[in-house]
Specification:
The protein is mainly alpha-helical. 70% of the residues lie in helices and 0% in strands. The protein is globular, with a radius of gyration of 23 Å. The chain starts with 14 loop residues before the first helix and ends with a helix.
Length: 241
């Protein structure tokens, strides 16, 4: 008679095992874990506030043209910690955990903050220039200067774009298309300025990926001195290793 054996490699869904797995992940990605915790706490606080007051708080944290003109540093920082849209905003948390956690374990905490900030701030300011120019030339309604504009999507797309450097070459083109084409198509269909910001953030991340690949290629290339000698084998270089 054959004995039934437990399947190897199966996932243990017991609460204690899940908690242990979550704690292990948090220790490996502390920056991402803290960021997720802050997002959840702020989302919960906004949910507890009266609707009108919550909208006022979000508006004061928004990186719209009025916010960028009056309190640019404040809105650029606070907007990255505010999820707006109820359940729809919270659905982004698993994506943040995967993308930011992967970049953190790959590049480290400081580089992760830099890439996220570059995507968030770069796309925000780039979009602001386009909108201000559009308002000046009458192509964009002035009301756009006071809309709600918060969230993690610009920074997240910057991180996701930078991860293209980690994708195998045979899949890199497909990955790039997945990152860049959806926001570009959404902007073409809806003409929503936010989608244009998503395009900018994705492009910023992809440019960073190219720079990272070139930096790695340069660092790994042999340094050849005169006479074809590898400069790393030069006696002076050897003494300084």
């Amino acid at each position: 008679m054959r004995m039934l054996r437990p399947m190897r490699g199966r996932v243990d869904l017991e609460p204690r095992a899940l908690a242990a797995a979550a704690w292990t992940w948090a220790r490996r990605c502390p920056l991402t874990a803290i960021y997720l915790l802050v997002l959840v706490v702020i989302a919960a606080l906004l949910a507890l506030l009266p609707e009108q007051l919550a909208e006022t708080v979000v508006l004061h944290a928004s990186t719209n043209l009025r916010g960028l003109r009056n309190t640019p540093v404040f809105v650029l920082v606070t907007s990255a910690f505010v999820l707006w849209g109820g359940l729809g905003g919270l659905l982004l948390l698993p994506v943040v955990a995967v993308v930011m956690g992967t970049v953190e374990r790959w590049l480290g905490k400081v580089a992760t903050v830099f890439v996220f900030a570059l995507g968030h701030v770069g796309a925000t300011l780039g979009l602001a220039v386009v909108l201000a120019s559009g308002i000046f030339h009458g192509a964009v309604k002035p009301e756009i200067a006071t809309v709600h504009d918060v969230g993690v999507s610009y920074g997240l797309l910057g991180l996701a774009g930078a991860l293209a450097a980690r994708v195998p070459i045979r899949w890199r083109g497909w990955y790039t298309a997945v990152i860049a084409v959806p926001p570009l198509g959404a902007f073409a269909l809806t003409r929503d300025p936010t989608e244009l910001g998503h395009v900018m953030a994705a492009l910023i991340g992809l440019v960073l990926a190219v720079l990272l690949l070139r930096a790695v290629a340069y660092a790994s290339a042999p340094r050849v001195g005169t006479g074809g000698q590898d400069i790393r084998d030069h006696p002076i270089v050897k003494t300084r290793r």
